[in-house]
């Protein structure tokens, strides 16, 4: 790649063409990536629609509260952490900044006939997902373009292109922020824009507007309160390096904060909404959380974005050539404090998510450090052109490229492979067993490429005895590809499910399974089930009814062993929310009630 450090006084037409190309390419990638799971962001677009139609933050116009009937016949509200009730009004609990900024997009989607509310006022999770996924892809494609233009302030086109695509595809931008509207989705777009403005000011390319700058940073806080760390750090930076901008910056920020306090007092009679209170940070597990968020195989930042090792190397190796040392200190300080603050969250591991989602909010700072590190590397090379070892130069670039490719591969897994999401809940929920994030035998990013570790001892099955899938007693027999019990049945989850069982003796046996199928009228007419016993195909079922029925598959004695693995391949499994208006996001195929292994009888 060219190492040219020429810095034009304004962007060329070619820059805008490449920036547009980056936007289009990443938008296509983000849109086509299939894994989209809503957790924290549920109801956020419904709130946008509520603001658009009813001009209030109260969600009382919609039927968002669910009820369940207790054994004594009473109806009881189902607790939902997304919502809170204050003074007999229902509010969205999480930060409202995302909902406010998303109003224009929601208005367009409403005009196209896509609403987060059904005609009867109930919540349409299916449409909410459509609205969120479209907007998240657009915003993160814009961020990729911003990365490119930020790079162009200091680097050549080729290096800036690498920065943009690496930042978009080799970080949590692809695996997390582009999937649905996490709080960090709007936050990192705004932060990326703010850092672009800051670098443009430092390079003399554009004059910084302190009012606009303060407004953008204020909104990073409104969408994600952990960005208070960034705001404080940048305020200190301005005090040191740009005092002429500080007064209008502080006045603008104070006005936005006053408006936010007014909103909070009006609706909640408190200075800040409950989500923004510092008391939410707890550090009971700090010394577990800190290394877990940095180096654990399923939540570690340096595991999921290993190219950061190369960025750190550049900053250390070429430290004498670094520009803007005060800005670098600011960036590093924000990253360190952000990780420390995130380690006080409950749960510290982020719950149901992919990888280190808590550090998504500092990705733009990583990009800034990468740009400055590369600029320093190229400056050093220009000064030492006569004594640069080509072997060492190419070697370090090869290592950097390898780390970037690994980063892209790992983050691609989170956006493309559903098994990485199912990792959160099986064989036991990560919320109940956080130690799973440290298991190198089954890291989240390899889920689907490898299977969970087999237990050392297979559960023994008694011939002619029934394994009841509606009870937890069935769990030891279920290796992977299953959900937890749900009353009268248990769903498979994914396009492959496996059972394990031990036998005291081997002979010809028959598997009897009582199961129904997931079908969708007019769209999904059957479920094929291919059975493989210890790696050998033993039969196929075609299920064309939702109602449960009993089916049999022969298990030849010559294939049976003391320890056995029965794999069910389910090529027609699909997620209901992908084909109909449903809140269900699991890939369903079989609704199993029980299985039974019997002695083969003549004629079978």
Q: Average pLDDT, to the nearest integer?
A: 93
Number of domains: 2
Share of residues in helices: 40-55%
Rg calc = 27 Å
Structural class: alpha+beta
Tell me the number of strands: 14
Largest sheet entry: 5 strands, antiparallel
Low-confidence stretches: 1-6
- Give the amount of beta strand, in percent: 5-15%
Specify the number of helices: 19
Shape descriptor reads globular
Give the termini distance in whole angstroms.
68 Å
Name its key features.
604 residues; alpha+beta; Jelly Rolls; 2 domains; five-stranded antiparallel sheet; 13% strand; disordered N terminus
Structure description:
- It is a single chain.
- With 604 residues, the chain is of the alpha+beta class.
- It has 2 domains: 13-37 and 130-421, no CATH class; 466-599, Jelly Rolls.
- 44% of the residues lie in helices and 13% in strands.
- The strands form 4 sheets. Strands 5, 7, 9, 12 and 14 form a 5-stranded antiparallel sheet that branches. It has a 5-stranded antiparallel sheet with strand order 6-8-13-10-11, with no helix packed on it.
- A hairpin with a 2-residue loop joins strand 3 and strand 4 (89-92).
- Helix 1 packs parallel to helix 6.
- It is globular, with a radius of gyration of 27 Å.
- Residues 1-6 have low confidence and may be disordered.
């Amino acid at each position: 790649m060219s190492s040219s450090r020429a810095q034009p006084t304004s962007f060329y037409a070619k820059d805008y063409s490449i920036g547009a190309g980056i936007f289009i390419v990443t938008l296509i990638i983000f849109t086509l990536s299939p894994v989209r799971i809503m957790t924290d962001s549920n109801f956020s677009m419904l709130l946008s629609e509520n603001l658009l139609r009813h001009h209030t933050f109260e969600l009382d116009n919609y039927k968002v509260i669910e009820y369940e009937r207790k054994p004594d016949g009473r109806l009881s509200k189902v607790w939902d952490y997304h919502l809170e009730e204050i003074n007999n009004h229902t509010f969205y609990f999480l930060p409202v900044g995302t909902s406010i900024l998303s109003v224009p997009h929601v208005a367009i989607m409403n005009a196209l006939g896509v609403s987060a509310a059904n005609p009867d006022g109930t919540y349409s999770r299916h449409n909410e997902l459509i609205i969120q996924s479209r907007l998240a892809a657009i915003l993160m494609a814009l961020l990729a373009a911003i990365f490119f233009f930020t790079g162009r302030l200091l680097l050549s086109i080729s290096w800036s292109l690498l920065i943009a695509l690496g930042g978009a595809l080799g970080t949590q931008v692809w695996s997390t922020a582009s999937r649905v509207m996490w709080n960090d989705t709007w936050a990192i777009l705004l932060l990326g824009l703010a850092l672009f403005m800051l670098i443009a000011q430092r390079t003399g390319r554009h004059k910084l507007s302190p009012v606009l700058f303060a407004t953008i940073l204020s909104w990073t806080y409104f969408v994600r309160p952990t960005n208070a760390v960034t705001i404080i750090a940048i305020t200190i930076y301005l005090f040191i390096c740009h005092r002429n901008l500080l007064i209008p910056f502080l006045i603008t920020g104070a006005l936005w904060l006053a408006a936010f306090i007014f909103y909070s007092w009006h609706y909640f009679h408190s200075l800040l909404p409950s989500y923004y209170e510092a008391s939410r940070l707890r550090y009971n597990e700090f010394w577990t959380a800190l290394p877990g968020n940095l180096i654990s195989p399923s939540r570690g930042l340096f595991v999921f974005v290993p190219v950061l090792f190369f960025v750190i190397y550049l900053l250390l190796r070429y430290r004498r050539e670094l520009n803007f040392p005060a800005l670098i200190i600011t960036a590093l300080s924000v990253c360190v404090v952000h990780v420390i603050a995130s380690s006080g969250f409950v749960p510290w591991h982020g719950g149901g998510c992919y990888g280190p989602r808590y550090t998504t909010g500092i990705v733009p700072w990583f990009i800034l450090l990468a740009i400055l590190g590369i600029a320093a590397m190229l400056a050093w090379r220009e000064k030492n052109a006569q004594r640069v070892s080509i072997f060492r130069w190419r070697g370090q670039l090869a290592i950097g490229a390898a780390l970037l490719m690994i980063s892209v591969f790992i983050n691609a897994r989170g956006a493309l492979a559903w098994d990485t999401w199912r990792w959160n809940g099986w064989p036991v929920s990560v919320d109940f067993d956080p130690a799973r994030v440290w298991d190198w035998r089954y890291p989240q990013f390899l889920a689907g490429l490898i299977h969970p570790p087999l237990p050392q001892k297979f559960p023994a099955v008694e011939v002619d005895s029934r394994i009841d899938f509606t009870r937890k007693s069935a769990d030891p027999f279920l290796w992977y590809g299953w959900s937890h019990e749900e009353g009268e049945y248990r769903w498979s989850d994914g396009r492959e499910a496996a059972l394990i069982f031990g036998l005291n003796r081997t002979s010809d046996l028959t598997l009897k399974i009582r199961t129904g199928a997931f079908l969708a009228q007019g769209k999904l007419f059957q479920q094929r089930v291919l059975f493989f016993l210890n790696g050998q195909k033993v039969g196929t079922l075609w299920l064309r009814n939702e109602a449960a029925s009993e089916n049999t598959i022969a298990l030849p004695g010559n294939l049976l062993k003391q320890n056995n693995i029965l794999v069910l391949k389910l090529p027609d499994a699909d997620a209901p929310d992908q084909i109909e208006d449903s809140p269900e996001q699991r890939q369903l195929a079989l609704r199993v009630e029980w299985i039974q292994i019997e002695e083969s009888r003549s004629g079978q």
